[in-house]
Amino acid sequence: MTSSRTSQPDTRRVVPVRSDVPQLDAFAARVRALIGAGLDERALTRAIQQELTRVLAAGFELPGEKTRPDPDRYVMYPLHVEGDGSFSIASAVWNVGQGTPVHGHETWGVVGIYRGVEVETRFEKPAVPDVPLVPEGTDEWTQGQVTVCCTTDDDVHQVRCGGDEPVIGIHVYGADIGTLPRRSYDSETGAVHWFTSEWAA
Ligand SMILES: [Fe+2]
């Protein structure tokens, strides 16, 4: 599922995906329009945060195959992948007890909770290599809450399932996140490991 890299990022071919959930297809169209408006990352992520908050509050039904936890690791199912790779929308599923390493995204991101509880610890993005990471705080996000998880210059965090049921998030990223090489960090040493969180089938 997850591949390892030791060199700099590359770009792989984007395979477009379109959701058959009408509310998500309409949301993708609004994200496309906002990106087309040429906003900077902070204005763009705030606008997408507002849109995703509305979509979650209005309610929609994710198909069962997009909410299925994997017993071995967290999974990201593609709900929408824009053909030019400019954004993607994922259903991210953490089973009870599962979490991520400390990681970055190399792009902007907005995360809304569809079901369950997510615990997020944020870190300062290291300005220099191989120094311990500085934690910035921990939050719990619950159903219907939406957070701007990342901008390119502030994108380092660790996420885990916080409840006694799997947590399912709707994640929006400014790239095809299933093919984007990005960094994970050893928080004690600052050591970097490049990885790609590939799309689950
Ligand atoms: Fe993340």
Description:
The protein has 201 residues and is an alpha+beta fold. 16% of the residues lie in helices and 35% in strands. The protein has helices at 22-36, 41-58, and strands spanning 2-5, 75-81, 88-94, 102-103, 109-115, 117-123, 135-142, 146-150, 156-161, 167-173, 182-185, 192-197. Strands 2-3-10-5-8 form a five-stranded antiparallel beta sheet. Strands 1-12-11-4 form a four-stranded antiparallel beta sheet, with no helix packed on it. Strands 7-6-9 form a three-stranded antiparallel beta sheet, with no helix packed on it. β2 and β3 form a beta hairpin. The chain starts with a strand and ends with a strand. Residues 1-10 have low confidence and may be disordered. It binds fe (ii) ion. Fe (ii) ion (FE2) is lined by residues 103, 105, 149, 157, 159.
